[in-house]
Write a structure and sequence with these properties.
Blueprint lengths: L5 H23 L5 H8 L3 E4 L4 E3 L5 H25 L3 H13 L7 E3 L5 E3 L12
Helix pairs in contact: 1-3, 1-4, 3-4
Length: 131
């Protein structure tokens, strides 16, 4: 039996980590209400480069509370994954942000590290340098 190469082992570990991140986010997704989904499609709420949802426009207090609850769930999932993987919560959040930013549909809002809110057009979103 041959010993797996270090590169192959790292690739397998990276794939497993990506699957774990997406699995954790899938468990958070059902908490997203239809009003949050609607606010995302309207560009009121959007993904940020920090791995959390943010507000591109002023939200109602009800919408703010719903997004805050989603972000608390994400933070908890990031903390759990970080502990399992021996990395920081911020590293898990940044990795997740890369995945989430790649899934933004045209017309949806997003915020990169520069803090500027943008609306996605037909072109892909420029990937942050850490992705």
């Amino acid at each position: 039996m041959t010993k797996p190469s270090k590169t192959k082992s790292l690739t397998i570990a990276a794939l497993a980590a990506g699957i774990a991140v997406m699995g954790s986010l899938a468990s958070i997704a059902p908490a997203q209400s239809s009003s949050v989904s609607q606010a995302i499609s309207q560009g009121i709420v959007g993904e940020t480069a920090s791995g959390y949802l943010g507000f591109a426009q002023n939200p109602s207090s009800e919408l703010r509370a719903q997004v805050d609850a989603i972000n608390l769930g994400r933070r908890s999932a990031y903390t759990d994954l970080a502990q399992q993987r021996g990395v920081t919560r911020q590293q898990v959040a940044a990795e997740t942000a890369c995945n989430q930013l790649s899934r933004i549909d045209p017309g949806e809002a997003y915020q990169l590290r520069d803090g500027v809110w943008r609306t996605r057009g037909s072109a892909p979103i420029p990937t942050p340098d850490y992705c």
